Amino acid sequence: MMNFSNNTSLVEGQSVSLRVSITGSIIYVAVYIPVILMCVSGNALVIMTFIRFKKVRKVNNYYIFALAIVDFLTGSVAMPLAISNRLIISETTCHANSRSYLFLPAYVLCSTSMCLLLAITVDRYIAISRPLRYHVIMTRQKTTKIIIFWFAFGFCFGTLPVWSFGSDPYQWVCGLEQYDAPILTVHAIVGSFLIPTWLLLLIIAYVRIFHIAYLRKDAVSNSRSQRAKSVQWKMRMRTTITSAFVLGTFTIFWLPHSFKNIFEIYLAKDLKSLLAVQTFCEMLTYISSFMNPIIYGWRNHQFRTAYKQILKNCDCFQGNKPEQNSASPDTDETGSINLTRSMSSVQINISE
């Protein structure tokens, strides 16, 4: 157990101190280090996979690449800043204005992740409900523009907590006293109520997607003369199920954090319980950032094979090896790389 130091009630003007004892601080950091390393290394692996292997750079995988960037930044930037904010008591980490800026990367990256989950859900809906027109509707250029838009939106929304209009920017916020900035209150309400609602709507959307897939299943499976069409559908469904796993994991690990603000306001009576709940909830959200690379490797043969190839090569940051010797599975979401080539006489007709 961490021993809380006697100077947690440090007030403005005093020297830098720790919220917990030195031993407790070492334990606190030691618990976070494996999470940071797994988050950074796992998502770096996904980023390298997308960059090095052309057959992984499919339209739907652009969202995976974007999420990997967000999660990589979470582990390399947001988490270290958050740890220092929780442990160190100083004028920088305890004044309302500067403290909000130190948490800014976490706010922005969280908002961007939520936006990308929405984009992935819409992409999967189009892929299942409009299979014939999917590659017309979701081109690389459109997908790139969508990702840029959601990054910009996530940045704008994530910066709301640093807009301290109508409040005291020098308020001391390291104790049990709650920061009373109106815009931060709105942000807390969003985190407590809007995020669970948002996730519920996305889950309902996936229920609708799988319902549409169920209705189309018989038509696809009974198409004996169009084997390529059946393979294409199976690959598309596998990608959709993988996306559902990503959303489900995000939901499980983020829901406790959504109710953290309620606990802080109504239930936390001392600094020990306050830090305990903050650590627990935030740790879960950070764990979700390294779960996605695991899900990709588990569900996607291309990513799994690429992981192995990258890890075997010491020169993983050099692209001097030909890609045909690298990891490149034979099928993708369209199910038409090698299968279509070997069946050039078979025309793939996908009915609506």
Automatic annotation (TrEMBL):
Taken from the record, one Pfam family name reads: 7tm_1
Q: How does it sit in the membrane?
A: Multi-pass membrane protein
User: Which SUPFAM superfamilies does this one have?
Assistant: Family A G protein-coupled receptor-like
Q: Which GO terms describe its cellular component?
A: plasma membrane
Q: Which residues form the G-protein coupled receptors family 1 profile domain?
A: 42-296
- Give me the segments passing through the membrane: 26-50, 62-83, 103-126, 147-166, 186-214, 235-255, 275-298
What is the predominant subcellular site recorded for this chain? membrane
MF (Gene Ontology)? G protein-coupled receptor activity
Q: Which family does it belong to?
A: Belongs to the G-protein coupled receptor 1 family.
Q: What is this protein called?
A: Putative adenosine receptor A3-like
